[in-house]
Amino acid sequence: MSASFPLPPRTDTGGCSGSPLRFPAEAIAPQSQAYIRWLTDDMLFHYQRCHRRAFLDVYGDPSRQDPPSDYLLKLGQDSLNHRAEVLQGFQPLHRPQFAPGDWAAGAKATLDLMAQGVDTIHQAVLVMPAATEGVQLVSQPDLLVKQPGWSCWGAWVYAPIDIKLGKKPKLDYQVVAAYHAYVLSRVQGVWPEHSYLALRGGQLYPIELGRLVLKLQDTLNHCLQDLRSPHPPELFISHSRCDLCHWFGHCYGEAKTQRHLSLLPGVTPARYEFLRQHHINTVAALAETDPLYLAPLPGFGEAVAEKLIHQAQALIDNRAIPRTDHHAPHGFPLWPEDLPEAETELFFDIEAAPDQNLIYLHGVLVVNRLTGAETFHALLAESHDDEHRAWRDFLDLVHAYPDAPVYHFCPYEAQTVRKLGQRYGTANRHIDALLSRFFDVHKCVTDGVTLPIESYALKHIARWVGFDWRDEGANGAQSICWYNAWAETGDRAYLEAILRYNEDDCRATYHVKDWLVKFSEPYWERLYAAHGLAHEPLRGNRD
Predict the structure, then answer these.
(1) Tens digit of pLDDT for each residue in 334-376?
(2) What is the set of domains in the chain, with CATH numbers?
(3) Quick one: which of 472, 506, 501 has its CA closest to 486?
């Protein structure tokens, strides 16, 4: 057994009578046809993330699934590599032999191995009947590890281990780990003291089963109920969770047809439920709602209520709607100093390989507002050894323009500059001085204007203002795949694709910033007029 994944000694529970937990029976649903025969741990895992996905995985037409993206394939390969590394520490492995999908045969083969008392079982199949008639619960933990104790087999028990690529013991991981322990307890006649997660970085995380029993019970009951329903669960699009799902295209198309409220930024699942309870079921209905009606609802407030209603109005009219600030003399949240114009302006975007802890590209677009000249600088680290040199090159470039504001999109660039300064010993006073020149275009957009878009990500905003990327499939996840492919093959075509994508991100930030300045100028003119000032924007040759 690997020293990276030692199992702690198990307290002898003395068999069934000493089981540490008593799990209540599943709530028995009214008599109805059981549409599924097998409820697997994989279904339960996906149900926690999306009720609808679990339903479609059982009943949906597979031909309507999206093909896996390069990034999803990479995650799959990373998961396999992590799994192989963990399994190496538990040799020798015993694996039950059965045809794929034949859970009954897999369960019988697993029982034979458990009865023999083998030390480690890989891809065991544990099966028990659910209280719901006609449904069997199937658990397939990555490992069953033998420990001292008493079970129906004799003087040993088994503890389940699930291998997960994540670095943290997410709740959905823990619930599935508890599910493994539950089904195992019915098979071996005693609960294991713990179920475990083998996480990335060599962590073996013990699950506190007593804390998760009620959560597992509730999740399991609702999952069985939804999977026995003739209708799929409620549609809800959440880009952070849905984008990598193979049903995304299918669900998104349906949501677009319905003009579903979940497509509006800021409509969270909790807010969506409150809107439905108040019979606000359409974008049109939300657009006509008084903000004072929504503001008292939990999770809303005046600012959120106004933003959501503006979001609906912007979508219906396809127009940008300014946010309001009743405390500002010009009635607008943005001030000229939020988006300063200078003779030279820098637009900055970073690319990273997070699984390698590597910042490999600082892209900087240098714009001379007087001449209209635009020069893109790709400060590239082709390996870990080059990261420090790329960081120095970036510092040299930005210090060559000491009065230039540095525009970026979202906090990541500023956070990474701080991190690289610490990593390579750059004095804090120099980092502080540099970051005082940083301006987050994303924050300015979200503070100042409501746009008729589904997301305030750079691509959505930039495309609405008229900019587009040269490579249609380019995105942050794809750039990670391209960098890995470049590192593995040495094919510079992958590197060139990354450089195009990074440059386009810089140029998109430039276009969005320019658009926002023009949008803000009528409000700023009120400030200049109130103080008797004249203002001539720096436009150069671009217009």
Answers:
(1) 999 999 999 999 999 999 998 889 999 999 999 999 999 999 9
(2) 34-227 (3.90.320), 259-319 (1.10.150.20), 336-530 (3.30.420.10)
(3) 501
